[in-house]
Amino acid sequence: MVNEALRRVPNDNGDKYIDEVNQIRDSLAVMGNNSTAFSLPQPHLQRTKLCEMEDKELEPLYVKRREQLKQLVASIVKPKIVQGRTLNGKDFVSFLEQILEALNKGEIPSTGSLVEIFNKAILERCLKVYREKMDGLGLPVPVDKLQEVHEVANGEARILFDKQHFGKHHAAQSVLKLDDEIKKVYRNFLLANEYQSSKLCEARFSECEDKMDHLQVLKLPSMAKFNAGFTHCNQSFVKDCVGPAKENYERRMSKMLAKSRALFIKEYNNKLFNWLVTFSLVMVVIGRFVIKFFLLEIVAWVMFIFLETYTRMFWSAESLYYNPAWHIIVSSWETIVYSPILDLDRWAIPIVIMLAFAVLYWRCLGGKRRRGRGSLLPLYKNSYKNSSRPRSD
């Protein structure tokens, strides 16, 4: 029976599964060369009472064959050495009972379980290949990109499994288990991708929200600066926010930017009007008392009178915002306040301080130099009073 079970099966079609099973048969045949076997008939039909029956109640042929088995065992048996100690008969019986108990519990592997263990090791290697391929993809990424890499990694894992697995029946079970494990790992990557995407998009959304809030409180209101910050914020968000959370955050971003723009435009004209009135008064003072430039003083007065009288004549400042002259003033203001080279909202205070020092230097040291140069030349009236020369007609 053993030799028949371990005989190689013909494989005329070159089936790789049959070749693999034949290899296992050849390996087990090495252990089966020293086996001796013969059949034992059934001792009695009442199997539940076998342990209570005497030999005279059992099948005579069974008793005869059993005695032959005892003689055979006695003739070939050798002392069993376990952990360096020779077992006596009582210990050997106890050892056999332990082996039988382990076999009944499935603790000692059979041929099928050995194949399962081998395929399990292959399955772990395939999962490792899949994880390494997926780990190489830095999260977060778009869902279609994650799906594409998943399909490639899954294909590589299946190719590796098909090359190395044993057994057709056990391989089918291992393939199902491999698919289940890959699905679990893929679900974990989907959850991690959603978390990383939400985390990244939330950070970019908060940055843009803070930037829009900062642009609402500019010292010198500038529509050009607001538009530049608005565009930069939107572009950086579209570039950096990736993954499954992008669609949701894009809707939030659009609402926030639209709200910020509407609020800025609402306050822009009022703030600019107040700044222009203040600016015109400052220019009046500078033109009269600092640089004493009459034309500058006149232009500043004209600007101040225009701003004040227009609003008084038409009862509201809003009507001024539709005047063509106002658009010219706004264009000039935007050109002065903000440009890619100079941002007066950031550098206004340092520039004012430097100009103040320059004016003080010019007024103080420049005036002394002029007085000094005038004293070096003799004045006409002094020379006239001190001259002893008689005046000619």
UniProtKB/TrEMBL annotation:
The chain crosses the membrane at residues 272-291, 298-315, 347-365. Pfam families: GBP_C. GO terms for molecular function: GTP binding; GTPase activity. Keywords: Membrane, Transmembrane, Transmembrane helix. InterPro entries: Guanylate-bd/ATL_C (IPR003191), Guanylate-bd_C_sf (IPR036543), P-loop_NTPase (IPR027417). The keyword Membrane applies. Residues 84-213 form the Guanylate-binding protein/Atlastin C-terminal domain. PANTHER family: GUANYLATE BINDING PROTEIN. This is Guanylate-binding protein/Atlastin C-terminal domain-containing protein.
